[in-house]
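Provenance and format

Records in this collection were gathered into a single text stream. Each protein contributes a sequence line and a token line. The two records reproduced below are adjacent in the stream.
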Amino acid sequence: MIGRLRGILLEIQAPDILIDVQGVAYDLKAPLSTCYRLPEIGHEVILFTHLAVREDAHTLFGFADKQERALFRHLIKVNGIGPKSALTILSSIDTRDFVNAIHSNDISRLIRLPGIGKKTAERLLIEMADKLDEWELGIAENLHLADSPKKQVVDEAQAALVSLGFKPQEASKALKQIPYEGLTAEDLLRKALQIL
């Protein structure tokens, strides 16, 4: 169906994105990792897409790269993981970290993801291991720009704030007010909660 969109970015209200493609505005849902990589409003953007069709809705999902979309497609094939859960997972963990967690059978890392309990984490490990066999760790490391330790800590704190019900924009704004200075994600979370 629709595999890729190229157009002008009209709105970002994560996870919702609106893109004008030659006069037609497409409403997409995207993980936070993609939202962070979007240009400013009014600039051209290219997103790889996946159309999820249900009886009551057709939802278009957008991704910054093909690897992220491929991981999303693998996730929604796992029993008990729908598009909404897959989007939450991709918003809460870096693609490389997720692949590494699967390869290393790190169930504790998966349980920390919003909405993922022990049974679902075990199912992810079992069902995703086969699907991710072709993913070499070296390829996974090239999915995103190199993450600094600061970015990883800030991303983890932001994911925690979003899981607590704060909007991504609110969480990002609060975290930007805090000087990093080697803080842990828990430290950043506590300071951000004081601001919010």
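Adjacent record:
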Amino acid sequence: MIPRVLAAPAPGWTARTDVVVIGSGIAGLVAALRCRPYGRVLLVTKALLDAGSTRWAQGGIAAALAADDTPDDHLADTLTAGVGLCDEDAVRALVTEGPQAVRRLIALGAEFDRSADGGIALAREGGHHRSRIAHAGGDATGAEISRALLAALKDAGIEVIEHALVLDLLRDGAGRAAGITLHVMGEGQPGGVGAVRAGAVVLATGGLGQVFSATTNPEVSTGDGVALALRAGAEVADLEFVQFHPTVLWLGDGARGQQPLISEAVRGEGAHLVDRSGERFMPARHDLAELAPATSSRRGS
């Protein structure tokens, strides 16, 4: 039996807002910015604003931006790479809305690498039959997107609480989400256990890769949001799908925690993986779909 609440002191302070967003990766930042025109928004995050997975996305962002590409082509490549495990409705939404989402990032100030004619430079990577991967700063795509979104967050006047571990969901008499309880730690202000009352709660806390002893997921990916949702009675699905980066720098048998990943752009440019003896064993060619999924739209990734 899952307890409905964590054992924690009663809230010592209360804040009020229209929308509270939990998480400061690309999902949380975009959600906060899209909600801001409709009222006050408070964003809370467990560590620093840029401590999540977004800035580690080195390989680029896939979208049908080229004149000879279409969302249907992107859909077909993704379903092939997903070997029957994709949620097709989710993939269709991703590939259809993806190009405009990239254009919105550009409008917010994200600077993608450009080709000689001034257009977005598009590369081809594993699983794709078209050149549709947009990069920023070579392999710093996630960092650039995070930078642009954080700048937009500041300009929009969105309130932020860092170092805030969200504990539980608050619900009204009808069982609807009405806010959260949280514990603000260390440098965060205000301090201690508190409550945020809100008309809407957006859960964008990321994954749970750190349940494994070694992973490419960042240290903050500990599944707090999934646990909160379960305690609140939410239905969750496909928790067996935990995304690991396909290539990682091997640090030895005793390696624990977050491991250094090797950018997908390396394989996309034709690099070869080698074993410790230097023997080449896996060519990183564009036509090998199994080297990397065409997108991260597998259920639960």
